[in-house]
């Protein structure tokens, strides 16, 4: 891969081990990956944007990932990517059900900026059915989330839900 910056965007409410798995794969290919946390008015988040960003930073440190920077963004993803000098958008693929949405997102982003490529990494099989909502639901009903989210996130979730 050329010396290129990649942006890995998402809501990360909260970041899960599945996201970290994709991030680690991206960081092994790209010298610089920006984990871009969307402010995203569309969803009713469990964690504020500031907290999601700080949890992502803690999770990256906990995982010992190098070459990763965490930033927040609002508005069009391609505009943010270009403002960072990024040439690629990283997305993770879990089950085949992700494909249609990802295809649509990638083609829309390509129409908006043909010079930014979308690049896909396959998740590890233990995370195929993991999502942030699943982790939140397990936590809400008193289940153990440690297998699904980084330790810092498990602590933050426990603090929120009592
Ligand atoms: N492991 C675990 N969970 C994963 C995952 C993985 N590898 N990949 C995705 N997920 C989960 C997420 O946690 C999320 O779960 P949730 O619905 O329970 O919260 C769900 O899958 C969807 O995640 P994702 O596809 O990353 O969507 P998102 O809402 O987190 O992020 C943006 C979408 C922010 C990238 C997209 O809306 C965007 O680019 N917005 C900016 C506006 C724009 O430019 N739009 C494009 C033109 S239309």
Describe this structure as you would to a colleague.
By secondary structure, the chain is of the alpha/beta class. It has a single domain, classed as HUPs (Rossmann fold, 3-Layer(aba) Sandwich), CATH 3.40.50. It is 44% helix and 20% strand. The protein contains 6 helices and 5 strands, in the order E-H-E-H-E-H-E-H-E-H-H. It has helices at 17-29, 49-63, 77-83, 97-112, 132-140, 151-161; strands spanning 5-10, 32-38, 68-73, 86-93, 117-122. Strands 3-2-1-4-5 form a 5-stranded parallel β-sheet, with helices on both faces. Helix 2 (49-63) runs antiparallel to helix 6. The longest helix is centred in the middle third of the chain and has 16 residues, at 97-112. The radius of gyration is 15 Å and the shape is globular. The relative contact order is 0.21. The mean pLDDT is 95. The site of coenzyme A has 23 residues, from strand 1, helix 1, helix 4 and helix 5.
